[in-house]
Each structure stands twice: as C-alpha cells, then as structure tokens.
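anyone else get weird line breaks when pasting these?? whatever heres mine. first is seq + tokens for prot A
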Amino acid sequence: MSILRRFTGDQKGAAAVEFAILALPFFLVIFAIIEIAIMCFVAAGLDAALHKTARQVRVGTAATDHWDLNIFKATLCGNLVYYFDCSNSLLVRATVITDMNSVNKISGIADGTLSVSEDFNIGSAGDYVLIQAFLPWIPVVQYYSYSSSKLDDGRYVLGSAELFKNEPF
C-alpha cells in the first residue's frame, strides 16, 4: 500500500484538525455577539433611565425641587442600574427649544474626542425641552471595530435623547 493511500485513508484526529481550523472564527463570532448584546443592553438601559428621569423634568418636579445638573445626573445614574461608572462618565445636555424647525441633536463625537458642552436648562411650564445624555462605553472585547464613530481611545459613545413639552406646573 502506498504512503499516500495510507495517509488519506487514516481518519484519526480529523475532528481535532477540523476544530482547530474552525475554532478561531467560531469564538470571534461568539465574542462579537456577546459584545454587541451587552452594548445594546446598556444602551436600552440608558434610554429607559433618561425617559424616567426626564419625566421628573416634564411634570415639574425638577423645577420645584430646584434640580441642577448634578442632581439630574445622580438621579439618571440611579435609574441606570447596568453601568458602574455612570456619575463620572455621563454627560448631559438639556436645552429649551424655541423653534421646532431648528432642533439640533448633536452627535457628541468630533475628531475622535467627546465634545459635549454640558448644559442644564429645563425651561418653565409649556416649554419644549431636548435632553441628551452621552455615556462613553468601554468595549468588553476590544478586538473588533464595529463602527467608525468611536473615540480615539477605543471607547464608543452611547447616546439617548428625549424631546418633550413641559406640562403646566
């Protein structure tokens, strides 16, 4: 029997070789799915926390209790249970909208840096208010580049916005 025939006929270790070939792409896909799932989970939590906190502005609780930016951020971070460094990382911008045709939603990223000038103007009764929250996200697995809109240090910026009309309070 020739050496070639014996080599191709031997099936010992075929599964190990196949696994070695497919293991790296398989685990890369698994880690990418986990990373995106965690990021989406935190982004959904940020949306829910901003919605819940913005309600306090909309109904007048924030105005009557004389909230400032720090109180708003502390309340929002208290509603966001999935992020541990929220109070140090969160950036908030609340502005009164005078003309609905000129609403400007900022992206938060300019030239690879986080460029949000924090502001906290919640207006008065009947005013339209736009509240935007930006939270830098450190990826769990840093081997992927999901999008081009990230910071120079590799962090992504999760953002959420609420546009509403203050109730008469």
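and prot B, same format (seq, then tokens)
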Amino acid sequence: MRILSVNVGLPRLMEWGGHAVTTGIYKYPSTGSVSIEQLNFVGDRQADLTVHGGPDKAVYAYDTTHYAYWRSQLVQEDWTPGLFGENLTTEGLLESEVRIGDLFRIGSALLRAVQPRFPCYKLNIRFNDPGMVRHFARSGRPGIYFRFVEVGVVQVGDKITLIEAADTTITIQDVAQLMLTRKSEKGLLAQVLALPHLPALVKGQLSH
C-alpha cells in the first residue's frame, strides 16, 4: 500500500442552484512533502466545520481502484487526483479490508481508520451533477476517514503500513453498508455500536 498523491485545497466560493456556496472540496496534488497538523494538512481547510473536518474526519483517503470504476460510469474530462475531495489518493487501501480502528503508519504520521464517508451535496457541485451524492453512496466506494494519532509528514510514494490491527472483523465497508441500508445480520448492529474507535456521531445515527 502506498500514497499516489497528496491533495490539499482551501475553501472557495461557488455558485450552485442560484446560490453562493463556500466549499473546500476542491483539492489538487501537492508537490513535495506535506506536514500534518492536528486537524488538517498544511494548506488544506474545510468550509463548513459543522459537518466537515474535526478529529474524526481529519484525513480522507480514496483508492485509485475507485477511479477506474468511476471512469466507466461518468463522462468526465479531468481525472486529476483529489477529484473526490480526498487528501490522500492511495493504492491498495480498500474499505473492504480496512477495519474500524486499524492503525497505520503513513509517511511519518500515525493515523487510525475510524469511519466511511457520506458526502454532502457539495460533491454534486464538484461533478456538476445533482445526482452524484446518490450515485456515490450506492457505489459502495465511500473512502476512509482517519483520525490523527501522531502528526508527521507525508509525500507521494510513502508506504502505508498497518501498525496495529483493530480487535474486530468489522470493516469500513461494513459500516458504510449498514448506514446505507439500515439492515444487518442479527447482532451486527450491537457489535458496531460497541466499537471503541467508531465516532459517537456515527453511533448516534445508527441508533435512530
């Protein structure tokens, strides 16, 4: 597993549906090494901090295999890494294999996988497609949000190494599917709600 691109961007003002919207979803590849702060990469910010960013959404990773899927689904000229708003475009880091709570060394930073992504309407803006959020959710390719455990520096080519496996078999993909369908095998919901590293906000959403 490795980093293919490190992507950052600052909020910008866009027009959508006749309204001015500030969004931080536009992220582009950065050259050289990028330092990580407690809540962001240097040079990267979110716009609406009520739903984006924070400790449980500090870093968003999206794998290059998903780009291959979307190329077959969408008419899109620009496939520059960062298109989905991810900070890290990765190779070999899949939601179906990464468990809730897995701890990774990425560059010199320590990051813990804690939840899948469920994008807001601003993904529609990025793709100029009012149905993109719905399409994204149904694709089963949510990407992975990480929490910082130890800050550091990352750059293209850095290895992504599993340092500590979580004491569970529940993957990022399992939680994403449960959130989407609200259906689970007997006992799965209870197991998910008991996960120590799953954010309280996600647990609250699953409980209702």
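btw re prot B: The chain has one domain: 2-207. Residues 189 and 206 are 8 Å apart (CA to CA).
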